[in-house]
Amino acid sequence: MSDTVRVGIVGSRFAAMLHAESYKRLPYVKMVAVAAKDNLVEFGGQYGIADCYEDAADLFARDDLDLISVCVPNFLHHQIVLQAVAAGHKSLICEKPLATNLADGKEMIDACDRAGVRLMYAEDWCYAPALMRAKQIIDEGGIGKLLYVKAKECHNGSHSIYAQRKEYCGGGALLHLGVHPIAWARWLVGQEVTEVVGSVTGGEASNLLHTSYTGEDWGVAVMTFANGVKAVCEGNYLTCGGMDDFVEIYGSDGVIKVDVTFGSPLRVYSRPGYAYAVEKADTTKGWTQPAVDEFNSLGYCGEISAFVDCVRFDRPAQRGLTGQDGLVSLGIVLAAYRSSETGRAVRMDEFLAEAASGKKASGKKAPARAKAAR
Amino acid sequence: MSDTVRVGIVGSRFAAMLHAESYKRLPYVKMVAVAAKDNLVEFGGQYGIADCYEDAADLFARDDLDLISVCVPNFLHHQIVLQAVAAGHKSLICEKPLATNLADGKEMIDACDRAGVRLMYAEDWCYAPALMRAKQIIDEGGIGKLLYVKAKECHNGSHSIYAQRKEYCGGGALLHLGVHPIAWARWLVGQEVTEVVGSVTGGEASNLLHTSYTGEDWGVAVMTFANGVKAVCEGNYLTCGGMDDFVEIYGSDGVIKVDVTFGSPLRVYSRPGYAYAVEKADTTKGWTQPAVDEFNSLGYCGEISAFVDCVRFDRPAQRGLTGQDGLVSLGIVLAAYRSSETGRAVRMDEFLAEAASGKKASGKKAPARAKAAR
Amino acid sequence: MSDTVRVGIVGSRFAAMLHAESYKRLPYVKMVAVAAKDNLVEFGGQYGIADCYEDAADLFARDDLDLISVCVPNFLHHQIVLQAVAAGHKSLICEKPLATNLADGKEMIDACDRAGVRLMYAEDWCYAPALMRAKQIIDEGGIGKLLYVKAKECHNGSHSIYAQRKEYCGGGALLHLGVHPIAWARWLVGQEVTEVVGSVTGGEASNLLHTSYTGEDWGVAVMTFANGVKAVCEGNYLTCGGMDDFVEIYGSDGVIKVDVTFGSPLRVYSRPGYAYAVEKADTTKGWTQPAVDEFNSLGYCGEISAFVDCVRFDRPAQRGLTGQDGLVSLGIVLAAYRSSETGRAVRMDEFLAEAASGKKASGKKAPARAKAAR
Amino acid sequence: MSDTVRVGIVGSRFAAMLHAESYKRLPYVKMVAVAAKDNLVEFGGQYGIADCYEDAADLFARDDLDLISVCVPNFLHHQIVLQAVAAGHKSLICEKPLATNLADGKEMIDACDRAGVRLMYAEDWCYAPALMRAKQIIDEGGIGKLLYVKAKECHNGSHSIYAQRKEYCGGGALLHLGVHPIAWARWLVGQEVTEVVGSVTGGEASNLLHTSYTGEDWGVAVMTFANGVKAVCEGNYLTCGGMDDFVEIYGSDGVIKVDVTFGSPLRVYSRPGYAYAVEKADTTKGWTQPAVDEFNSLGYCGEISAFVDCVRFDRPAQRGLTGQDGLVSLGIVLAAYRSSETGRAVRMDEFLAEAASGKKASGKKAPARAKAAR
């Protein structure tokens, strides 16, 4: 076990900030390098990172890094991970989604496997304390046998051009937001999804609200697991008032509901407003329920701490948080796109086999049916 | 305007009780007759109804009734309504769902139309005060343009054999419970549904929990309206702890969430328990949020009062509460069954045309795909 | 039992509106006359009242009124009630507080008693549906033996000059708002208060926020009942965000909490805002919990209906809602003022005896100690 | 800065467990010794503490301890602290309340001052994350000028004989529970209390529920601060359903409410029950709102971490967490007892001066008035 884990971060925007805020709480972590195209000096300064590079290659050229966080826009995950592997780095954290299409994701995993790289998939929901507590109660038998899960992440849209366009993001709200509840539901159920029925808006003029976005602004995936458990997962950009992450878990003898983002012990009425309430809220005036410590409650601190421990104690990423888990979660979203496009339920085994056979099973084409439906 | 509205009730169980509780709050209503196979004397005694008949035909033979409530099991709605029409009665309230298949429902409506009968469809959600308040806020522009609706009614299953078997009920949870949110969403949006994607469990061994029920114990319908608005409606029997009716309404500039059943101003912790908390709750011990006045908050009082006013002031049933509205709501549920069976999205115009052409578009066959998926 | 109850209202502002809104829901009530110094034509027009008088004497001169609502500023209750009695009217509803001092209140009650007048004291809390439901649960044994009650009514101050000045109001927040929880707690416990410990701010410069008000802007009364039950009641003008009426009831085996004003089933996020959320809220933008039907949920509808039934069925006002109950509630507030002034616990029997002996036990003098304490 | 902080704990019951759970989360802390009369081996085993002593003197005889936690029953705080000081230890954490009377507390502080001992007072509320977040919002101007605070800690009574008897505890619910909100309110306001009005039940037959307890089972203290701010703090043993720590903070332009114990993002309905919901809850069946991580949310982790940092970085205890702060908080509770006994408001300067002059201003005598009041 090394005394200090030396970290490099690729990226300097929102996701990079989430990682850095989590790293800085760990006494045995030192953030030593960052690489980014912009916001570089500001980011480095804010987190006391000594070495700032404009080119990720310069960061990868170092041989003193124990762990690298890949926090670039979705469409660059593929290239940056391959570059890090080629440079000989052995522990990588890749932000969600793993990639923007299955072929890219498969290539990343294969490269890591060949090179003996520990590829960790950053699904923070698996470490959100309230959701871990829910799992604990289920494991204690508190709701009997698990039958059905509902989960969503929704907000009112991102200002980032990388989130608004499918070519950068790989999809719209169901991919960018919905991949959280989908990955988490799969982790919770502990089984593979066998069938997906999806419904998403069609992007641009076919969207409900954000007609300038090329990806969907609303999407739902109905999933059936191998053991029959059902899940309904959702991501949308139609939700004002702050990010809404909500979970319902139904068992044979009980129910658990978790209000991940608004389940705060505080209620505030403020005329002048204050600094910050919750992610994506557009005001702090009037009544709000500010998060106490969002980096923690959304799971970022726990996730990063767990990944750092994988490095410290030379362990693989836990179940649900490997590159392969990221790949499957991506596959479920893309299967939901396929279902919405074709108006048909999609069997996951067929869908993944088709993807593996070389036909790219992506969501790149605008879903024709959804457009027509409007 | 008549001074007193004289009411006859057919049925003596749960739905009949809901009607009677609502009638008795209206000073200008007199319940004069009830017909039922069982529980007759008890019911009549409880509500001070003078004349109790074992055969509905005897009730229909009277010529002094201004209004008749049809509160029999679903599969008998068809027969009882036709019987009432044949006997010359002119104002009927039919409980939900209108019928167990579209052909029956169509026949009921046609018969009423021919005979000039006012057929009122008892969708209490349209009169739930909290949901009416939500509509008022939408109408005032409080959330901008309406985009998306989520709504559900869920509980842990019914003890009534009529609810547990498709041959009596016409379906399972999506029909018996989900028809409330579906009818309400259609009324709120004020447009017709063009497409339905449905997912339901398959009944019996294919159910998640209630393997003795022949209808589904879980169902979701994703609906697209003519103006592009989306709705996700759900009914399930997987929900412990009391009936859970919850609504979310998303607009371009706001959100409304309504906790219809648990949105009580009271929180109670009770060691000994007390008489009643909310519908279908299996305990009043520990922490509960008892309804203040469920007959009112679930909309029964408002609905019955509105129907009585239709008689008093000789008005047709309001939009959303006519027999035709009941027929369309039933059609949406049955289309969701079809979608789940076939694994395909269902276009409502095609589905209804097919039904009108004589092929019964019912949900009677067990949905093969849902079974296979488990 | 008369077919129609004919009502006259004295006053045309907030309290008069509350009465009129409640009367208009009752099919057997007809509002036939109103008397007020201002807002007369508008008020009469709004509620379809045919006869509008500038002088209450003209209203009292009529002999066709079955019931009169006294909705004038507090300091005029005494004069108007005496005037109505003198004119021969037999059923009066007096708004809270009964009077601004005990001598006035005593004179009103004596006059009514001598003339056989039914004097009803308008404590709406006793008819708030949520609080009635709480009482029902207590009566069912749900929380065991009643031990302790906390209750408050608080908002951010009134624009009415009659509420801001002690000479018109008789006190500040503890009288104007706190008299609701105090009267309700006494009604709930069903016992007399034996001792009061009070703490109030001193008005004007001694207030915490409203230094232009001559009455206190914050006040607490700790009450001990004859059976040992304790109550802590509060009224303050320090509470932003809408009127906050909250109740906690502690028993030997349970707890009941009632969020009378914010315990709504609706949660709304609105960017543009909408018409109305809750009493005294200064915005409808951002997150709000709008009341579904405040006239009903605050008890006005139930209270007025009960008073009208007293007239219809020639019954006395119920326990807790007689003039005498109003007098005792006023006495408790004034005893709290005395306690705050003197820094001593006040025994209610001594305090009331002293008042009866002719020394006016009012709260008119500025409480010296509270001032000094700042 | 020492690499590792070596900790000794005196006590092995509830408070000791809270300290140990917090210590074990800190990578730079090593718990090396524990002393206790009972539960010794179990406690040592649970937390991996190598050296277990039956006599605290043996623990104090060690010269390798950087920090000592005093977690014995209240009445032993005095003796144990003096013993630790005499043995030459330099950093002590004393559990609340500091002592059972002011003379003892003063002697402890004087001894520490003379010996240069860092005496830290364990008020966890000052480190409860939700309450720290509330303070941050106040500091950002979110509610304008602070005017008024309400705070309480309440549950249904303790099984510990040390909590049930005044001779061991120093008082009843207002001391044992209420000292938390009182110390926290004083820390938040940042001013001294000038006047206290108290009301408490009289113990034994004069209690509302727990007639076997010699201390009060209900108590309220109304406090006026030097700047005029008001606070109402409460502790009671009348509250079923789990420990209820609730805070309200009123400013000139806003309000903050913090539900410290029930403000969980989880709502659970469980038929079989599960391991643990919240402190002092007597069931996990039915509906519950389980704490996510109570050691953290109640402030224990933050408090212990802060104390350990005082040792690591050789800093004094922060404002509000010194022995002197503990003494003043105790004084406020005892002044509330005096006020309840005498039926008079108590000026804190006079009360503390009297105590300093040698007359023990304790709450030892049963409060005569409270008894009489029943």
Short overview:
Four copies of one chain form a homotetramer. Chain A contains 15 helices and 15 strands.
Task: Walk me through what this model shows.
4 copies of one chain form a homotetramer. Chain A contains 15 helices and 15 strands. In chain A, strand 5 (91-95), helix 5 (102-115) and strand 6 form a beta-alpha-beta unit. In chain A, the strands form 3 sheets. Chain A has a 7-stranded mixed beta sheet. A 6-stranded parallel beta sheet of chain A has the order 3-2-1-4-5-6, with helices on both faces. Chain A has a two-stranded antiparallel sheet with strand order 13-14. Helix content of chain A is 35%, strand content 23%. Residues 360-374 of chain A have low confidence and may be disordered. The radius of gyration of chain A is 20 Å and the shape is globular. In chain A, helix 4 (77-86) runs parallel beside helix 5, helix 5 packs antiparallel against helix 13 and helix 10 (179-189) packs across helix 13. Chain A is an alpha/beta fold and 374 residues long. Chain B binds chain D through residues 240-241, 269, 271, 282-283, 285-289, and chain D through 240-241, 269, 271, 282-283, 285-289.
Name its key features.
374 residues; 15 strands; 15 helices; disordered C terminus; seven-stranded mixed beta sheet; six-stranded parallel beta sheet; alpha/beta; globular; homotetramer
Q: On the 0-100 scale, what is the average pLDDT of chain A?
A: 94
Low-confidence stretches of chain A: 360-374
| Total of DSSP H or I helical runs spanning 4+ residues of chain A | 15
Our measurement of the CA-to-CA distance between the termini of chain A, rounded to an integer number of angstroms, reads: 58 Å
What is the makeup of the main sheet of chain A? 7 strands, mixed
Based on the structure, what is the oligomeric state of the protein chains? homotetramer
Strand residue percentage of chain A: 15-25%
Q: Output the helix-strand order of chain A.
A: EHEHEHEHEHEHEHHHHEEEEEEEHHHEHH
What is the number of beta strands of chain A?
15
Helix content of chain A: 25-40%
- Gyration radius of chain A, rounded: 20 Å
Describe the global form of chain A.
Answer: globular
Main-sheet strand order of chain A equals 12-11-7-10-9-8-15
Q: Which pair of protein chains has the largest interface, and what are the residue counts?
A: A-D, 40 and 40 residues
Question: Which structural class do the helices and strands of chain A define?
Answer: alpha/beta
